[in-house]
Amino acid sequence: MKGAAQPAQIPTSFGNELRACLRCRLVKTYDQFRENGCENCPFFKMDEDSDLVNEGTTPNFNGIISVMDPDKSWAAKWLRISRFVPGCYTLAVSEALSEDLQNICEDERVQYVPPKRV
After folding, report:
1. Phi, psi angles (nearest 5°) of residue 28
2. What number of CA atoms fall less than 13 Å from residue 58's CA on the CB side?
């Protein structure tokens, strides 16, 4: 992977402490988000405020996919995560970002696609 982005942390546990970022769907443990934030969404500054980990992530998600080369993965393209760093991602989240975090996305000029309501 010549010139590839530095991969995200791999979850250190696959138990109940897993959480998914509500914007990019990266999956890590609560402690990993608290200590290092989200590699795709550094502007949320989760590593500076544990309340933002609770606000910007969810333990409620469906499925996990590991993506090693997002640019070449058809699954990453289909899931719309091909521009993110290599790592573990959820297939779907059902919660939306809070209005405050949506405003941060707008201020940073980064795309946020809310989950589809069923």
Report:
1. -150, 175
2. 17
Q: Among 32, 25, 91, 85, which Cα is nearest to 64's? A: 91
Amino acid sitting at position 71: D
Segment 48-97, tens digit of pLDDT = 999 999 999 999 999 999 999 999 999 999 998 999 999 999 999 989 99
Read off the pTM.
0.89
- Backbone phi, then psi, for 6, in 5-degree steps? -65, 130
Of 9, 17, 118, nearest in space to 66 by CA: 9
Within 10 Å of residue 68's Cβ, how many Cβ atoms?
12
45 φ, ψ (degrees, to nearest 5) = 55, 45
Structure tokens, 91: 């297939």
Q: Is residue 40 within 8 Å of residue 21, measured between CB atoms?
A: yes
How far apart CA 10 and CA 5 sit, in angstroms, is 15
pLDDT for the residue 114:
86
DSSP H/E element including 86: none
